[in-house]
Amino acid sequence: MSTIYRPQSIVILTGAGISAESGIKTFRASDGLWEEHRIEDVATPEGFVRDPGLVNRFYNERRQPIIEQSVGANAAHIALAKLEREFSGSLLVVTQNIDNLHEQAGSKNVLHMHGEILKMRCTQTHKIHDCSADIESESKCECCQMAGTLRPHIVWFGETPLYMDEIYAALSSCDLFIAIGTSGNVYPAAGFVQAASQAGAYCIEINLEDSQVSDYFDEHIIGKAGETVPMWVEEVLSA
Ligand code: OAD
Asked: Given 114, 126, 129, 220, which residue is catalytic?
């Protein structure tokens, strides 16, 4: 990053890569989740209708280490929380991750566009509830008092991501956009770099390798998020 560049408004998009060093598997790595489960089975509304037990078990397994706090924020999450505290301009973290590691690190201004593993939703009332235990097919919902109406508050394929108006508003007015640890395979998040770039933002990508949308970025920082993000944050804060 150019040291003479002094941003006023930053949008940070994070993906599975930022949580990889905390021990949460990414989606598209050769050892990723999709190897064990087909996307259609565990991440679509149709899969949930077909086999709610399987889908609930899948997310229960992902939720457990977060509840037990056996996975924790790493140096990248911690650096972004520090940036939010110390940066004098505006800063928004948009994450595709359903874990709570940004919050564990202390970030406050975080939008989970693909939902949150620690939330569940009633399919009858659409009310969102905190979720700190397994969801079972027979779990009774506290708002409708019925069993079998709860689902993970996760955006599945074919569903609309959350907070889109707020995100596009922030993208259209930021002067620095940075994407960290995301492969650029899944839209609309993969298109955020183009929206920010068209609005005049300087765009940086941090990843272990080129992503599907690398060509749209002005600058690439290659390396592990746990090492590169803290260095980048120090550069921004000292600019
Ligand atoms: P992916 O698994 O597709 O990509 C993870 C990216 O992180 C890859 O580009 C890796 O190169 C990079 N990466 C891995 N380890 C890293 C590290 N230590 N430091 C930096 N980068 C690293 O994950 P996402 O792009 O987040 O959606 O996937 C997007 C969406 O696809 C997910 O939110 C999920 C999935 O389907 C839903 O479930 C709705």
From this structure: 114
* CB-count burial class (<10 Å; 0-12, 13-18, 19+) for 187: exposed
Contact at 8 Å (CB) between 10 and 174? yes
**How far is the first Cα of the chain from the last one, in angstroms, to the nearest whole number?**
10
- In tens, the pLDDT along 23-58 reads 998 887 655 455 578 888 999 999 999 999 999 999
Say yes or no: CB of residue 211 within 6 Å of ligand 1.
yes
Q: pTM score, two decimals?
A: 0.96
37 flagged as catalytic: no
The 10s digit of each residue's pLDDT in 91-134 is: 999 999 999 999 999 999 999 999 999 999 999 999 999 999 99
Q: How far is CA 79 from CA 67, 74, 116, 130, 223, in A?
A: 22, 9, 21, 27, 15
CA within 13 Å, CB half, 193? 25
Cα–Cα distance measured from residue 61 to residue 168, given in angstroms and rounded to the nearest whole number: 32
Ligand 1 test: best mutation among 27, 151, 227, most atoms within 8 Å of CB? 27
- With the most atoms of ligand 1 within 8 angstroms of its CB, the residue from 208, 214, 222, 228 to mutate is 208
How many residues appear in the chain? 239
